[in-house]
Amino acid sequence: MDPKHQSTALLRAGLADHQLPCADQPELFFEPDTSDRFGEKPAAKEMRERSARTLCLSCPARDLCLELALREKPAAGIWAGFSSDEITDYLREAA
Ligand code: SF4
Predict the structure, then answer these.
(1) Which residues form the 4Fe-4S Wbl-type domain (predicted)?
(2) Distances in Å between the alpha carbon of 48 and those of 45, 75, 77, 82?
(3) Which residues contact 81 (CB under 8 A, 6 or more apart)?
(4) How far is the CA of 60 from the centre of ligand 1 (A)?
(5) What is the pLDDT of residues 37-88, one digit of tens each?
(6) What is the pTM of this model?
(7) For ligand 1, which residues put their CB under 6 angstroms from it?
(8) pLDDT number for residue 47
């Protein structure tokens, strides 16, 4: 069934039915909570996010994840290969 026509609860259940690449390496998908007052360095962020996006390409539930992200508008992280900012921009342009 097209994820667009599924309830949010069904999308979540569908995700739970899969072995998700992000479950094994969650640290790649969100900016680390660091005590460094300068935060994550740009080069480290780019490398981390590139690795996360690559994992998303092989995810068996990417379409479910993308639909869920479009509905829930995450404030951070990589979702279905897109950053939260990219998802926000897409939704703004599509409105
Ligand atoms: S597509 Fe979504 S569920 Fe799959 S690895 Fe990426 S963030 Fe995780």
Answers:
(1) 21-89
(2) 5, 17, 11, 13
(3) 52, 53, 56, 57, 62, 66
(4) 8
(5) 778 889 999 999 999 999 999 999 999 999 999 999 999 999 999 999 999 9
(6) 0.91
(7) 15, 20-22, 29, 55-56, 59, 61-62, 65, 78-80
(8) 97
Q: Is 95 helix (H, G, I), strand (E, B) or coil?
A: coil
pLDDT at 1 over 90: no
Q: Distance from the CA of 78 to the center of ligand 1, in angstroms?
A: 8
Contact (CB, 8 A) for 15 and 65: yes
Q: Which amino acid is located at 9 in the chain?
A: A
Token pair belonging to 43:
């080069």
In the structure encoding, which two tokens stand for residue 8, read together?
């949010």
